[in-house]
């Protein structure tokens, strides 16, 4: 299974009905092989395959031009988002504090043919995110869980109306209360939680 991690809080119906991705062309086939290789040889707390696919579906269906990811690790979610952005003509900016993982991710994006759509910013994202300029269509939070609230506060003004904030590891054990409070009480956000992922729409 690409992504290496647990399959999350899924019911057996999901597992039974969902089937592996079917590559559309050689480019996708190669990217899927790179994902398999990362999962087998460089796993580090990467998203499970179904979450990666959901990120791709979200980004591509909304025609995202600018996506921001917090927590690159070795690049599994980045590749899934990158596959969407290759089609939409968009760009991903992804933040990673660990130099070794950032270097591995850079190499993996290159192998997947996605270097032209993905920029890695290595260092503490709480600092580096401040200099992000421009509008954001979609945010994926997957770094330090206590930091989600800070990332949210920095990115909310930059998120376009109709934009999405997705956050990983949203379960009773790991969800950080200040972040949950913020995404569930703001009248300008509509939030659902599914399979350990929160999905928040910025309404206006
Ligand atoms: C759960 S992993 C990300 C997995 C990745 N999204 C994937 O699916 O392949 C979390 C990553 O966030 C990084 N991280 C934690 N705190 C950070 C910070 N303050 N700034 C940037 N990255 C951070 C960690 O080093 C780790 O590699």
Q: Indicate the overall shape.
A: globular
Let me know the largest β-sheet. Answer: 7 strands, mixed
What's the CATH first level?
Alpha Beta
Sketch the topology as an H/E string, one letter per element.
HHHEHEHEHEHEHEE
CATH topology heading: Rossmann fold
Bound molecules: S-adenosylmethionine
CATH architectural grouping: 3-Layer(aba) Sandwich
Question: If you compute it from the alpha carbons, what radius of gyration comes out, rounded to the nearest whole angstrom?
Answer: 16 Å
What is the overall number of helices? Answer: 8
Q: Name the poorly predicted regions.
A: 4-9
- CATH H-level superfamily: Vaccinia Virus protein VP39
GO molecular function: O-methyltransferase activity
Protein name: Putative O-methyltransferase
Enzyme class: transferase
EC number: 2.1.1.-
List its salient traits.
204 residues, alpha/beta, Rossmann fold, seven-stranded mixed β-sheet, 8 helices, globular, EC 2.1.1.-, signal, O-methyltransferase activity, SAM-dependent_MTases_sf
Structural notes for this entry:
- With 204 residues, the protein is of the alpha/beta class.
- It has one domain (12-202): Rossmann fold.
- Helix content is 40%, strand content 22%.
- It has helices at 12-17, 26-41, 49-61, 76-88, 99-111, 125-128, 148-155, 177-185; strands at 66-70, 91-96, 118-122, 136-141, 159-168, 189-194, 197-202.
- A seven-stranded mixed sheet has the order 3-2-1-4-5-7-6, sandwiched between helices.
- Helix 4 (76-88) links the parallel strand 1 (66-70) and strand 2 (91-96).
- The longest helix is centred in the first third of the chain and has 16 residues, at 26-41.
- Mean pLDDT is 94; it is low at 4-9.
- The structure holds S-adenosylmethionine (SAM).
- Residues 44-47, 71-77, 95-98, 101, 124-126, 142-144, 147 line the site of S-adenosylmethionine (SAM).
């Amino acid at each position: 299974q690409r992504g290496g991690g647990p399959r999350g809080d899924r019911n057996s119906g999901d597992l039974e009905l969902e089937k592996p991705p079917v590559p559309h062309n050689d480019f996708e086939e190669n990217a899927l092989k790179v994902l398999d290789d990362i999962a087998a040889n460089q796993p580090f707390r990467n998203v499970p395959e179904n979450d990666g696919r959901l990120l791709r579906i979200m980004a591509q269906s909304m025609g995202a031009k600018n996506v921001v990811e917090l927590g690159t690790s070795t690049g599994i979610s980045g590749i899934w988002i990158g596959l969407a952005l290759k089609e939409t003509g968009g760009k991903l900016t992804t933040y990673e504090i660990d130099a070794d993982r950032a270097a591995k991710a850079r190499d993996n994006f290159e192998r997947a043919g996605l270097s032209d759509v993905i920029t890695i910013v290595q260092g503490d994202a709480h600092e580096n995110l401040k200099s992000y300029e421009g509008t954001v269509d979609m945010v994926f939070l997957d770094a330090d869980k206590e930091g989600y609230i800070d990332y949210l506060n920095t990115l909310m003004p930059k998120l376009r109306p109709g934009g999405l904030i997705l956050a990983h590891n949203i379960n009773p054990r790991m969800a950080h209360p200040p972040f949950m409070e913020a995404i569930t009480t703001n009248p300008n956000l509509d939030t659902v939680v599914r399979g350990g992922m929160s999905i928040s729409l910025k309404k206006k």
